[in-house]
Design goal:
heterodimer, A: alpha+beta, 5-stranded antiparallel beta sheet, 3-stranded antiparallel beta sheet, 8 strands, 30% strand, B: alpha+beta, Glutaredoxin, 4 strands
Chain lengths: 171, 122
């Protein structure tokens, strides 16, 4: 087994998202938030301005899919952790030829490694007959994120960790 | 026979694992896989995960050569070679359909495809 490595910058650029839109929620453009999810790779959360998460992606340069490690790191950032289910995590291997000529040349230097991506997508679900979605709060420092489920029409201000911090400040 | 060179492996079939309801698959990857197959002069095998018999074959090739998961990503594209080797070429980009399209375009312009067309097996 080879230790996973950070993505070469040229590959990271090739994987950088273009423009997506919030699907079946508000249709507004998605923002890509870079997060510190797991080492040595790079994590991105694609969310609309209200904080509804379209998909979360982690990628590294390694010889196997880091799915279990990513699941553990996501659970640490999710309230409650049980929202992170194995079946919502999907892996993808990215090869040089599909990432453009520059990335193809760079990746050819280490044929033993592949770009390993893991996607986490939570589809809307009903809780007490109310449609819920996964939200993300980015008000916890650079690269930090808190995931939480909330009703679809929520304004994105119901982060449970923000609430705990507010209560702590009031005491 | 001693001294006789093994023939170079050549592509023999392109396999696409997909579903009709998936916008990354139909029409996008359906169309691009036919284009790639034409360039490589090989037939396309389409494995629809919603058709029981095809689903079994799809699960098998994904499990052995692709990106397997309990609910794996589609489309997944594979190239089969005359020596039995199977290469995973592409998995759909969950971010957005446009990103999957870009991956197909990059694949069609890649140095890898140029080498395969020139008869240089990777």
């Amino acid at each position: 087994m080879t230790r996973p490595q950070r993505l070469p910058p040229i590959v990271e650029r090739a994987l950088r998202p273009k423009d997506g839109h919030c699907y079946r929620h508000c249709s507004r453009p998605l923002r890509a938030h870079r997060i510190l999810l797991a080492r040595p790779g790079v994590g991105w959360v694609f969310a609309c301005p209200s904080g509804v998460v379209s998909v979360t992606r982690y990628a590294e340069w390694g010889d196997r899919a880091p799915t279990e490690r990513v699941a553990r790191e996501l659970r640490r950032r999710c309230v409650p952790p049980g929202v992170v289910r194995r079946r919502d995590l999907r892996s993808a291997t990215r090869h040089g030829p599909e990432l453009g000529r520059a990335a193809e040349r760079r990746l050819a230097s280490r044929p033993d490694l592949r770009v390993r991506a893991v996607y986490w997508r939570v589809y809307p679900f009903a809780r007490r007959s109310v449609e819920h979605r996964l939200f993300a709060c980015f008000r916890h420092g650079a690269g930090e994120v808190v995931f939480y489920p909330a009703p679809s029409d929520s304004t994105g201000r119901d982060c449970p960790r923000c609430a705990v911090e507010r209560r702590g400040r009031r005491r | 026979m001693p001294g006789r060179e093994e023939p170079r492996p050549r592509p023999v079939r392109l396999t696409v694992v997909l579903a009709d309801w998936c916008p990354h698959c139909v029409p996008l990857s359906d169309r691009y896989s036919r284009r790639l197959a034409r360039i490589l002069r090989v037939p396309v095998r389409r494995l629809d995960i919603d058709v029981a018999r095809q689903e079994r074959a799809a699960d098998r090739i994904v499990r052995r050569h692709g990106d397997p998961d309990p609910d794996y990503l589609i489309p997944q594209v594979f190239l089969e070679w005359s020596n039995g080797r199977i290469d995973h070429l592409l998995t759909g980009f969950s971010e957005e359909v446009a990103r999957t399209r870009q991956a197909w375009n990059d694949l069609l312009r890649s140095g890898w495809l140029r080498r395969v067309r020139a008869g240089e097996a990777p």
